[in-house]
Specification:
homodimer, 136 residues, Dna Ligase, domain 1, three-stranded antiparallel sheet, three-stranded mixed sheet, 6 strands, DNA-binding, zinc (chains A, B), cytoplasm (chains A, B), transcription regulation (chains A, B), DNA-binding (chains A, B)
DNA sequence: TTTTATAATCGTAATCATTCTTATTTACAA
DNA sequence: TTGTAAATAAGAATGATTACGATTATAAAA
């Protein structure tokens, strides 16, 4: 999901193009990791001095709703990242924040274990230290 | 982990017995589910009218630290439940909040998949509707 | 190009969960 | 019974997030 794909999806749904929206997508495309709303605000202020919290949050959740970003709770704060094309989960480095795909999803086995339950969603996250931070 | 076990562990570590602490443990022992700090406060006010937020949070995190309770983030709010004796994960019903053990943990396969990573923790939660709520 | 409708944004106040601070009370060991 | 550290109450402070009225910008129509 690159910047252009995100913008295309946005406009196809009738939302308007703005430079801020493009820059938000650029921000998330530059690195494979989660960022908080505050992280994004800090970066955006460099090029858009008067951008407001409202714009940050409104667009973050718009992108989540359009399946362009995904969101998770990391110690009580919402964090966002580019949505991956195929379903998978992430290892998250607690030191640098970088994420790495885990190509292993246990949900199908769980469905078998819970025959009378209706399963809507699941979350699987692994936390620790990445090789780079470990050797530093 | 019943009420008496929790209190024993508490006192063995040098913390004092209080009726409030006992009642907090009773609250979590009565049902197999997560409750928020606010849920607990509401219930505690029935028998301890002037109990404060501070007492609620201080004891919740004390119990987490002593491995008597476990904590998770459910849509931006911390929720707590009795810690299970053996490691496992939970299905959480989005309608009634009840939880059910999942006897399946994928972490060992993940460790194999990430040889140069140091893994400290992981979270696996499954969300949906339990059989009781589904048929209602 | 100009006009128009409405989507998007700004600036700031409000809200909500959580944490902190200070004074007071309580548990329990001596 | 008394002394002392732990525990608590009350409420202020904090920090993330949401809400809101006024203003500005986008995109489509004239």
């Amino acid at each position: 999901m690159n910047v252009q794909h995100g913008l295309d999806r946005l406009m196809k749904k009738g939302y308007k193009y703005t430079k801020k929206r493009e820059d938000i997508l650029r921000y998330f495309n530059q690195e494979n990791r989660y960022w908080s709303a505050k992280d994004l605000l800090r970066s955006m202020r460099a090029s858009h001095e008067s951008i407001s919290f409202d714009t940050i949050y409104r667009n973050l959740y718009l992108f989540v709703q359009l399946d362009i970003l995904e969101v998770t709770d990391l110690n009580g704060e919402k964090h966002f990242r580019i949505k991956c094309d195929k379903h998978h989960h992430h290892f998250i480095c607690l030191m640098c924040g970088i994420t790495k795909e885990i190509n292993l999803c246990p949900i199908h086995d769980v469905i078998k274990e819970l025959p009378h339950y209706f399963i809507e969603d699941h979350k699987f996250e692994v936390y620790g230290t990445c090789p780079t931070c470990k050797s530093a």
